[in-house]
């Protein structure tokens, strides 16, 4: 037995028995889920299944009524606020693309870089070569090198989604939470996004919430189906989509 | 401020603005003092004092633009910081009166003698020294803004709720300062000033110098604001303005950023108030009136939110119009005109004078192959969506 290891679990993310209710509505009900380091997991589920609420809990936006949420085996996320959790290395892409519209693509990435985020640090900030190289690399990955000087608000919907993924990359978190990355995208863009996420998964643990089954199939990763705030089924996309209860909740009873 | 921050903050528009303010700050006092009275180019003393007042308002507008235009904090109580700075200066000026007051008391200002006070309240100590008063001009508004901001921003009070509590703050101060037992002259405030640093406040030379100093303060304030908004911190402020919770999820302590600019802004407003008081010769509780703070926000909206120079311009233009219209037959209608102005600007010029000019000038400039400064600037006009 390794005495040095004080981790409660080896999982990157560990949720156990989590409950949240809003005014009596049980948004999350005894939810338990683990994500291994380096894993990519797709979360599916009908509307109101609690997917976004789960992300809110992990990122500190919502505090659970009960249950354990452990990050990296040691950190209890339920005690921390959004800023602290972001600093620990959890990045989040929102359902609706939220980029800083009145600033350039490059500045958006600059803001996302995980460098000194203090008031003093940013006031006296001077760019460094390492920083511009990292921005350069991210721009290439998200295919926006040519659009670097454009205002983020002028980008197409798909480009905004990529920019936001790029901001996550610049943040370089240990765990990426990606909420509906292909909503409103064309087929080509959807395909490119799947490629992009696979690329990102080489160095990061990723959790993707998505409705688009073609996209989830293309990712080819383990799938968890949520329903009424708890896990309904887990396995490969074929196993999950042939599960009778999953079919039932998706098609309605 | 480090040299690179200074060079980065100076684009063409900023340099032009500074040049104009510096020219006014030098030429107007010189013409007033050196040319013979009555000459066509001589600026009469009453105008120097009037324009000095406008320059102080411009500094106040600048301080509001820093938080509203760049960080989305709409303070409807900034007049409070302006007035507090003014009171700090007023207290110094009161103690300079000495035995020349009506009651001739060497320590106590007239209103305290009148109220039968036997000794100076503790919070008046030190105000006989200029350096102490000057420090308080920055410290008192700064401290109030820090405490207020610490509570408000930590509790994530934003938008219209924040605007309402800033109104409540200035209104509470208004009521407090109206009271005689508060120790600041009650209803009448502080007035009858004799001299500042040994110079007679009524003298032409003093007035001209105060005007020049106000212009200098405007220049310094503008440079500080430009250095802030062109730094990476400025980008974070705009990010907070446009998408606050996104900024938080990137790992920025939004409340610390807001607290920082809010405090800097309050200190600037305090300086504006301190320069205002010796030029107008009085400070009384009406400076805390909520209407004053709202008016100051209108100046910024008219000039152009998020443009700094526009805020200063708006302050001067609106106040010039105010002076012009309130001294004629139109006087009773001034408030209607101010209201109409605000509505028209919001409808027709949502970016304000300078913002609209920039939007018109940018494509023209780009077409003519002038280097695109705006993109390097990283600062664009905000949406008027408050």
UniProtKB/TrEMBL annotation, chain A:
Q: Could you tell me which PROSITE patterns the record lists for this protein? A: ABC_TRANSPORTER_2
Positions in coiled-coil regions? none
Q: Which NCBIfam families match?
A: urea_trans_UrtD (TIGR03411)
Source superkingdom: Bacteria
Task: Name the keywords, alphabetized.
Answer: ATP-binding, Nucleotide-binding, Transport
- Job description of the protein: Involved in beta-(1-->2)glucan export. Transmembrane domains (TMD) form a pore in the inner membrane and the ATP-binding domain (NBD) is responsible for energy generation.
Query: Which SUPFAM superfamilies has this protein been placed in?
Result: P-loop containing nucleoside triphosphate hydrolases
Q: Spell out the protein name for this chain.
A: ABC transporter ATP-binding protein
Domain called ABC transporter: residue spans: 13-253
InterPro entries in the cross-refs:
AAA+_ATPase, ABC_AA/LPS_Transport, ABC_transporter-like_ATP-bd, ABC_transptr_urea_ATP-bd_UrtD, BCA_ABC_TP_C, P-loop_NTPase
Q: Give a Pfam family name.
A: BCA_ABC_TP_C
Taxonomic source organism? Bradyrhizobium iriomotense
Annotated GO molecular function terms are: ATP binding
From TrEMBL, chain B:
* Keywords per UniProt: Cell membrane, Membrane, Transmembrane, Transmembrane helix
Pfam families xrefs: BPD_transp_2
Q: How does it sit in the membrane?
A: Multi-pass membrane protein
Q: Does the keyword Plastid belong to this entry?
A: no
Q: Output the superkingdom of the source species.
A: Bacteria
The answer, when asked if Membrane is one of the entry's keywords, is yes
Q: Which compartments is it annotated to reside in?
A: Cell membrane
Residues crossing the lipid bilayer are 14-35, 47-70, 76-94, 129-153, 160-178, 208-229, 256-277, 297-321, 333-354
Name this protein carries in UniProt: ABC transporter permease
């Amino acid at each position: 037995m390794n005495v040095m290891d004080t981790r409660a679990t080896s999982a990157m993310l560990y949720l156990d028995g989590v409950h949240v209710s809003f005014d009596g509505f049980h948004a999350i009900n005894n939810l338990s889920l683990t994500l291994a380091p380096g894993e990519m997991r797709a979360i599916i589920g009908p509307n109101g299944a609690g997917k976004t609420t789960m992300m809110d809990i992990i990122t500190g936006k919502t505090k659970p009524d009960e249950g354990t949420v452990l990050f990296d085996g040691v950190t209890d996320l339920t005690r921390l606020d959004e800023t602290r959790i972001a600093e620990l290395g959890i990045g989040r892409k929102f359902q609706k693309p939220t980029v800083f519209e009145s600033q350039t693509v490059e500045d958006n990435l600059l803001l996302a870089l995980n460098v000194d985020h203090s008031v003093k640090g940013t006031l006296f900030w001077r760019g460094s070569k390492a920083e511009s190289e990292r921005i350069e690399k991210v721009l290439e990955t998200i295919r926006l090198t040519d659009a670097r000087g454009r205002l983020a608000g002028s980008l197409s919907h798909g480009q905004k989604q990529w920019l936001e993924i790029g901001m996550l990359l610049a943040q370089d978190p240990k765990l990426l939470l990606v909420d509906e990355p292909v909503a409103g995208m064309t087929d080509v863009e959807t395909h490119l996004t799947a490629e992009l996420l696979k690329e990102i998964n080489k160095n990061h643990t990723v959790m993707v919430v998505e409705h688009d089954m073609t996209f989830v199939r293309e990712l080819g990763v383990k799938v968890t189906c949520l329903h009424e705030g708890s896990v309904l089924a887990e396995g490969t996309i074929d196993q999950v989509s042939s599960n009778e209860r999953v079919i039932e909740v998706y098609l309605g009873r | 401020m480090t040299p690179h921050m200074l060079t980065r903050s100076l684009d063409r528009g900023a340099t032009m603005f500074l040049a104009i303010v510096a020219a006014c700050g030098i030429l107007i006092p010189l013409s007033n003092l050196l040319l013979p009275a009555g000459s066509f180019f001589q600026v009469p003393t009453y105008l120097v004092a009037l324009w000095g007042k406008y320059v102080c308002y411009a500094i106040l507008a600048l301080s509001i633009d820093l938080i509203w235009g760049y960080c989305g904090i709409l303070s409807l109580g900034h007049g409070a910081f302006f007035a507090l700075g003014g009171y700090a200066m007023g207290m110094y000026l009161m103690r300079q009166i000495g035995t020349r007051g009506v009651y001739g008391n060497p320590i106590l200002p007239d209103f305290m003698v009148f109220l039968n006070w036997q000794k100076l309240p503790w919070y008046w100590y030190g105000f006989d020294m200029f350096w102490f008063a000057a420090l308080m001009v920055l410290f008192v508004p700064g401290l109030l803004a820090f405490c207020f901001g610490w509570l408000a921003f930590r509790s994530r009070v934003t938008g219209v709720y924040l605007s309402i509590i800033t109104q409540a703050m200035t209104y509470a101060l208004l009521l407090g300062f109206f009271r005689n037992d508060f120790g600041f002259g009650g209803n009448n405030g502080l007035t009858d000033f004799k001299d500042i640093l040994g110079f007679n406040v009524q003298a032409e030379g003093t007035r001209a110098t105060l005007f020049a100093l106000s212009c200098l303060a405007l220049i310094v304030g503008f440079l500080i604001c430009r250095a802030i908004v062109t730094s990476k911190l400025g980008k974070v402020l705009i990010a907070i303005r446009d998408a606050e919770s996104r900024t938080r999820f990137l790992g920025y302590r939004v409340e610390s950023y807001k607290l920082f600019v809010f405090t800097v802004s309050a200190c600037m407003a305090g300086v504006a108030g301190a320069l205002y008081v010796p030029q107008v010769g009085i400070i009384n509780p009406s400076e805390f009136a909520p209407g004053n703070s709202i008016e100051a926000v209108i100046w910024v909206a008219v000039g152009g939110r998020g443009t700094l120079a526009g805020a200063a311009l708006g302050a001067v233009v609106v106040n010039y119009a105010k002076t012009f219209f309130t001294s004629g037959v139109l006087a009773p209608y001034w408030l209607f005109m101010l209201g109409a102005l605000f509505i028209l600007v919001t409808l027709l010029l949502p970016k304000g004078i300078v913002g609209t000019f920039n939007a018109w000038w940018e494509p023209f400039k780009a077409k003519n192959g002038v280097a695109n400064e705006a993109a390097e600037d990283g600062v664009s006009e905000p949406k008027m969506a408050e």
